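It is worth pausing here to work through a concrete case rather than discussing structure prediction in the abstract. The textbook approach is simple: state the sequence, then state the predicted structure, then interpret. We follow exactly that order.
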Amino acid sequence: MKINTLSTFPDIIKNSLKYGVLSKAIKNKLIELNHFSYFNEIEDKDRIDDEQYGHSPGMVISYEKTYKIFKKIKKINPKTKVIFVSPKGKKLNNDMVMELSKEKNITIACGRYEGFDERIIEEFCDLEISVGDYILTGGELAASIIIDSVSRMIDGVVNKKESVSNDSLMNSVIKGPVYTKPYDYKRKKVPKVLLSGNHKKINDFNRLMSIKSTLLKREDLLETCDLTILEKKELKKIKNSNQNDRVFIALVHYPISNIKGEIITTSLTNLDIQDIARSAKTYGIKNYYITHPILEQRNLAKKVIGYWENEKERKNKNTKHEAINNIIIKKSLNEAILDIKKKYGKKPITIATDAKIMNNMVSYSHLKAKIQGKKDPYLIIFGTGWGLSNNIIQSCDYILKPVGGYNEYNHLSVRSAVAIILDKLFGCNF
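Step two, the predicted structure:
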């Protein structure tokens, strides 16, 4: 493979390739590297950057000043695939690396300052790549990462093919734990199966450890992983054992906004009781609170629940009674919060939900990380009618971003919204 780099400081890239398997690959001509500088085609002491139009801060790599060097590289390498490293690009992943390793000729253009004049990108760029959601002072280090990851996929660069095929992120899983001598250190022993000599058992063990590690550290990767039925069952057991025993949900009927923004009390509905209870049970929610200030409405809820709890329905193996067992009826949201406080010795962290876009809303990934990272109880609050009152929303610790499509119409039933939100937070992606 032939790799060309275009940068302000080529020595940064050159120095990163002096060591390890890459230096050997270059020496053995498995990889051919050519380094170009933006200054190769401009006059001495001239600059490659210029001020932005629009008076924004920061300089931009000029189209006029760098056009010649891009044309020169294309002339020497007419079929090269030109890659611009940029935080605006597609995030580098293993699939992308494998595809790039099949190319015969690639050119990596490194940015500086505030990036490139957009016209350079439009004319010369085949692919924009980001190495992560952060900013570097220049693209040279990012280029080194791309060169390293792509090169090791080329036959002969890494001596043993198994070293590459068994690496983390191959087949959408990360590598499980590995061990070496001594066998027993401070009462921590190497798993016996690794010393058994039974290659099938060892392979099965390593595979299971690999997918377990992926579940605990990079669950997002499992979405594209090809898992067996047994592996899925094993992962669900692990996930279930750590499930949401500190997460509660509440359905509020007062204070609720109507279409005019007035504060009202809404009526209970049978479907909200049943369907939300089933969603709560499916996603491992500890308890589902139904709050209503009117005694008759609370009694009605108890009557609905009692119907599904009767012995006759249990004998008919109706699964609804399993879900409604987790329902707790309270007069107000405050009573629900105090009930959780009694159980855990602290008030729950409260999360409001609403269909409107508001300031300071948190994403699902942010909230998911919060819940997984803390031992605190959490209460996710849902409104009926036209949504929770502003007083409730503003009193909560977080406001969750709304669900919905890209259409202007966004009027999901609360039971639909509950199911979608719980799936986004606690759904099984494998």
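Step three, interpretation. The chain is about 40% helix and 20% strand. Residues 143 and 277 are 52 Å apart (CA to CA).
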